[in-house]
Amino acid sequence: MNILTATINTFLIFSLTFSLAHANEPGYVLQNGSAVTDSSKQCVRTAASNPESVPAECSDVPKSVASQDEPNADETFDGCANIQCAPAISGDVQTQSGNELISAEIPFMFDRSDLTSQAAVKLDSFISAIRQRVSNIISIFGHTDSLGTDPYNDDLSERRANKVRDYLLNSGIPGKEISVKGMGEGSPVADNNTRSGRAKNRRVVIEAK
Length: 209
What we know:
Blueprint: H1 2-23, E1 30-31, E2 34-35, E3 94-96, E4 101-107, H2 117-130, E5 138-142, H3 150-170, E6 178-182, H4 195-201, E7 203-208
Parallel strand pairs: 5-6
Antiparallel strand pairs: 1-2, 3-4, 4-7, 5-7
C-alpha cells in the first residue's frame, strides 16, 4: 500500500511540475495547455515576450494592434522600423485625360499616420499637377490593413487621410476643395494574410477632378 501511495504521489508531483512549466511559458497566457484568446480571437500575451516560445495555435495569429506600443519588426518594411522606410507603392501620380482625374497613393508605416519622406515627394508631385488647373475637387480616402479592431482601424484610416489633407492645406491648397473619409480596413487592394499585402493596404488614395 505504501509503494502504491508513493507511486501516485510521484506521478502527481510530476504532473504538477509539467503543468506549471507550461503555465509559466513566457509570452502567452495558457489554460489547460492551450493559449487563451480574446474576443477578437487574438492570443492573450503576458508582459514577458519570447518569440521562440510561441504556442502552435498562436504562430500565425497576429498580435492585436491595441496591445502594441510600437511597430513589430514583422510589420515594418524589410524589417526596418524607421519611419523613413515605408515601401514604394507602384505608380506615381496618375493622370487620366478622359475625365481629367489626377490620383496618387500614399504609403504608411504599420500603425502609423506619419508622412514619410517618400510620401512627401508623391504629394509634392500631386500638388504640382493639380496647380496647373483653375480649380479641383479633391477626395482623400484613408485605408488600413486588417490588423486591429474595426473601430481602431476606422480611426487610424481617418487620421492618415487628415494628415494628407493637412499637408495639402499647408501647401496652399484651398480647404473648400478637399473632402476626407476614413475607409478602415474595408477596401483592401492586396491579401491581408501576407506581410507584403498588408503593406500595400496601409495607404491613402488621393484623387482630384
